[in-house]
């Protein structure tokens, strides 16, 4: 009951201005473009293309802190969007899909992806596979997010 | 004149099909957004490299040359998807101020490319040879970041515009671009 009241209070605050939601959304989109773009650069290097004269571990090391900053902005702006109308989101199948895809993408990124990308000795086949899975996961998160508005 | 052109574009079979489709329309839009994520991020990273912020241990030439074709491929997909989204609802976009701001920013992006490709992006080796990153490269990068951010934000805001006769209706949640 208390949680419900708190939830309504937060939603009311967020909905008090018609600009809060769109601005949070712009931050959300710009930040995921930033972090997914950085991850994609690592993935390209896993495919053996992209930024030349470098190994996947070098690219991962150079991009990882910036990716994390981007993800932090994504994960701060996302809940603002969610809290504007939690019940709608929880009942939205695209939102639920997006949350599973996001959890998988983040876990994959910081376990298998990091392990393979930071190793100088991983085989080319494994690298290509991991890069492809990484891209597919992040693109599904974006698709899931957009489909929230169409579910 | 422009409105008539937009109405004609929207009336084409393909555009009508997209507008009246179920899944195709959001799929086109998701692809547009996914391109912003994967390839738009590369634009940002190239510019921040020119500003000397990220990837400083890699040469400018490696970053600019290595990502050039990926950004081009991404731009072609992003542009085709964006044009399809616009074309399918062109007459509705006509009165939308955010649409026109976005188009103006994209025109400035084009002018930016005409000016700074010969000066900066086509000669990254010269930038690496300089002891400090030349001012023209930093100006190009800062302008590019500003313009693309403006394109992105105005692009999203297109979906929030309501024509005057519908005023009074308060937007409280994710509005699909109607």
Q: How does the SSE layout of this entry go?
A:
The complex is a heterodimer of chains A (151) and B (178).
Chain A (H helix, E strand, L loop, with lengths): L1 H14 L4 H28 L8 H28 L2 H5 L2 H25 L6 H24 L4
Helix pairs in contact in A: 2-3, 2-6, 5-6
Chain B lengths: L1 H10 L1 H8 L3 H27 L9 H29 L1 H4 L3 H25 L2 H6 L5 H24 L20
Helix pairs in contact in B: 2-4, 3-4, 3-8, 6-8
Brief synopsis:
The complex is a heterodimer of chains A (151) and B (178). Chain A is mostly helical and 151 residues long. Chain A has 6 helices and no strands.
Stretches of chain B where pLDDT is under 50 for at least 5 consecutive residues are none
Mean pLDDT of chain A: 93
The counted number of beta strands of chain A is 0
Largest sheet of chain A: none
Distance between the termini of chain A: 28 Å
SSE order of chain A: HHHHHH
Helical proportion of chain B, percent range: over 70%
The N- and C-terminal alpha carbons of chain B lie at a distance of 23 Å
How many structurally independent domains of chain A?
1
> Which stretches of chain A are poorly predicted, pLDDT < 50 over at least 5 residues?
none
- The secondary structure category of chain B is mainly alpha
- What sequence of helices (H) and strands (E) makes up the elements of chain B? HHHHHHHH
Number of helices of chain B: 8
User: What's the domain count of chain B?
Assistant: 1
DSSP strand content of chain A: under 5%
State which percent range the strand residues of chain B make up: under 5%
Shape descriptor of chain A: elongated
Total beta strand runs of chain B: 0
- Gyration radius of chain A, in Å: 18 Å
What's the shape of chain B?
Answer: elongated
What class, by secondary structure content of chain A?
mainly alpha
Tag the structure with descriptive keywords.
heterodimer, A: 151 residues, mainly alpha, 6 helices, 82% helix, 0% strand, elongated, B: 178 residues, 8 helices
């Amino acid at each position: 009951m208390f949680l419900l009241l708190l939830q309504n209070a937060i939603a009311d605050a967020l909905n008090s201005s018609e600009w809060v939601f769109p601005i949070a959304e712009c931050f959300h989109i710009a930040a995921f473009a930033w972090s997914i773009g950085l991850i994609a650069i690592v993935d390209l290097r896993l495919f053996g293309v992209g930024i030349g004269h470098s190994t996947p571990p070098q690219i991962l090391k150079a991009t990882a802190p910036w990716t994390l900053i981007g993800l932090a902005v994504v994960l701060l702006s996302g809940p603002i969007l969610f809290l504007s109308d939690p019940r709608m989101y929880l009942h939205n199948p695209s939102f639920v899909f997006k949350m599973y895809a996001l959890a998988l993408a983040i876990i994959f990124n910081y376990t298998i992806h990091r392990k393979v990308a930071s190793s100088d000795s991983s085989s080319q086949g494994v690298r290509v596979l991991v890069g492809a899975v990484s891209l597919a996961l992040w693109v599904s998160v974006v698709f899931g997010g957009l489909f929230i508005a169409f579910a | 004149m422009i409105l008539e052109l937009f109405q004609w574009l929207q009336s084409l079979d393909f555009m009508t099909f997209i507008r009246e489709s179920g899944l195709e329309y959001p799929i086109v839009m998701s692809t547009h957004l996914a391109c912003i994520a994967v390839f738009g991020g590369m634009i940002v990273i190239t510019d921040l490299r020119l500003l000397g912020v990220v990837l400083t241990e890699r040469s400018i030439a490696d970053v600019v040359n290595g990502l050039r074709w990926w950004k081009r491929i991404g731009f072609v997909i992003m542009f085709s998807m964006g044009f399809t989204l616009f074309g399918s609802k062109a007459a509705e976009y006509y009165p939308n101020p955010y649409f026109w701001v976005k188009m103006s920013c994209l025109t400035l992006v084009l002018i930016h490319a005409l000016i700074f490709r010969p000066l900066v992006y086509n000669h990254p080796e010269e930038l690496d040879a300089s002891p400090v990153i030349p001012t023209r490269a930093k100006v190009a990068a800062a302008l590019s970041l500003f313009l693309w951010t403006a394109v992105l934000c105005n692009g999203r805001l297109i979906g929030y515009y309501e024509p005057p006769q519908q005023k009074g209706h308060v937007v409280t949640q994710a509005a699909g671009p109607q």
